[in-house]
Amino acid sequence: MSLKANDPDQYLTDTIDYTEQATGQGGRWTDARSMREEFGIAPYDREAFEYPNVVPNALEHTWDAGRNQDAGGTDFLATGKPGCGKSTFGLSWSVRLLEVNEEKVVWRGSTSRSEWLPLAPWTTVLVPKGVDVSAELVPKNPRHDALEVDLKDMVREVKRYEDPVQVNRQLLEPGQFHVLYPDPRMKGCQWVYEEAPERTYEAPGDDRGLFDREDPLNHWWFAYVLARVEKGPNDFQSLILDEIGDIAPEAARSDQFATYQKVELLRDTFVDARKYGLSLFAFGHSERDIHNLIRHKIRWRISMPGSANPTSKNDVIGMDSVPMDNDMASRYDIGECLPFTEQNFERKVRWDDIPAPHDRTLSVDLEVRG
Q1: What pTM does this model have?
Q2: Which of 4, 77, 107, 202 makes a 20 to 30 Å CA pair with 23?
Q3: Domain count, the chain
Q4: What is the distance in angstroms between the CA of the first residue and the CA of the last residue of the chain?
Q5: Do you find a cis peptide bond into 56, omega within 30 degrees of 0?
Q6: Same domain for 32 and 132?
């Protein structure tokens, strides 16, 4: 449905440019409603789930927890093989977070992956100041040429940030979907760490701090989570960590970049994140790809289709028991998954497809000026 821009009833439409978040005016469709209408997603129905402590508890964020509900932020780790639908599930979950909580949703931007593109028309992209940003659409077929694009032409808005603290305090908007790209200069990261004196980790050398501009780009995310926990604001926000194994791999060691120490830092901020309204939703190929320090802190798990779900507590680090005694998920189709906690599992949760606008990948280059 579409109406002309001067139509007095335009607020009734699902036109992206006229949503509540796009215009700042109430009484219009929210971004979440616009997304649902675009992709044919039915409204959220809490009664569709058998166990309130599994999916509803993870999704519905509140400070006033009732029965079968946790107060504050939540989390999960969804694992499955490539092509099992993790990214589409992540997009669907993001839409639900916006719909149910009207909170700030942040997708971890990657320079080489762009599974968020189906939501590009509603997206605010955040990139660091002082960094030249270029982008191109890369075809699957290497014989075809890449297409240079301007991010501003693909998304609702592009914002520049100074440091992780400014991202959280000034640039994120409730009810909106954001894609955040890390700063290769690590600007403000060491300062955030030094502003949290109770968090002490061994630096890799006397001539540098825990964070340094020579660090791998993914290390920026450790400081980002710390900044959100230490500096706020303490309202509800969800961070979608696609391919968390790239950030906190099981193979992390105490190297010249203090990778292991930063994994320890993420572990220690994980529990505090819940208290301050930050939810961390992680996706990976396998449990064993993600560092055990992080897995110990995650309360929800999701088995994606095509891989066997765990049937023993020995299969899941961080849980004293699992409620399944036989494999179901390996027989599921794409678009179905099995979420569970230590107490219950929700059999065969389904979600709607959110198709990509094309079959190309967005590659983003972040080049430091000077």
Answers
A1: 0.94
A2: 107
A3: 2
A4: 48
A5: no
A6: no
